Amino acid sequence: MTSPTRYDNAKVMNRFALTQRLVGKLKREEAVIGGIGNTNFDLWASGQRPQNFYMLGSMGLAIPIALGVAIAQPKRHVVALEGDGSLLMQLGCLTTVGMLGTKNLTLVVMDNRVYQITGSQPTATAAGADIVAIAQGAGIRRSAWASDEEDFDRLVERALAEGGPSLIAARIDGQPAVATTERDPVRIRQNFMRGIAAAG
Hints:
The protein has 8 helices and 8 strands, in the order αβαβαβααβββαβαβα. The chain is 38% helix and 17% strand. It is α/β, with parallel strands linked by helices.
């Protein structure tokens, strides 16, 4: 039996490439909530699916919003795509996810140990905070570091097929985003509402 992967022995991967791999596995109109910053920008660059919601300026709220969508639409799988800095702003959401046990929810956390778009100041994960250990302690038992791209694919496939809640953490490089999300919050909201058939 192999030891579980930890941050320090996980491969450093490219965030955009991982986002493309994730989006490529979405076959059932799954909703994706993209956190602010580069995770959001890479989701946008991976193709503007109507079921994508692109956060603008609301740090730390991707997981709470994804949880709300998952509760409101229990037959739809929902993915929160978040960075380590944003998650650290709202760690309490993990305890709520763990307590509720929402089965149609997957959290994907890209960890580069810095607040990249504001100047690369170190986050708490640079000082040893382990997102997977924190999530497991919060009650999200299916939490794991992706050891490499193939392991990331396997973890995503398992989460989508078997349910959760699940948290997948990936160690990522410092490459900048390849595009920038359209800055129109009203249009983003309206497109997403139509995409998940929630528009009035």
